[in-house]
Amino acid sequence: MDLNPPPGENYANPRICFFHVLFKAGALAFYILSALFSDSFVIIFVVTVLLSALDFWVVKNVSGRILVGLRWWNEIDDNGESVWKFECLDQESLARMNKKDSWLFWWTLYLTAVVWIFFGIFSLIRFQADYLLVVGVCLTLSIANIVGFTKCRKDAKKQIQQFASQTIANQFQSTIQSAFSVV
Question: Measured between alpha carbons, how far is 110 from 146 in angstroms, rounded to an integer?
């Protein structure tokens, strides 16, 4: 992953990018600033987890589809087994995805989890089990999206490779057939 956003390219979906970052920043900012304004752990817990849950939903259902062309979900099949489901745009559409949008999506996804881990370590050091609970819930939501989208991206790459292999094989087969039909 490149640390710098792609040069010379604007965001194709600035509103989606804004909301992709908004709830992450809101949850983190509220968690940090709440100690200054509120002594109520319940309010801190509820608002921080609510903002983090909104972020989870926006990333999973909106920004993931629009910014990187990926979507994931988990179902329980008839046998009670957990089954991951993935959707991705076709190869041509994925190739047209805005690189700056994609860069923002992936970096904020991973960076948010790193910040929650940092807050978790800080809560452990200060022996604040209640705040560790808040961080744990927010980190779990963040990691769920990381795992889902990472698996989805790997599945998309596999589908693209299979499509490319199949296309090459079909082209080769038609070339051979046309060569022998001429003879």
Answer: 7
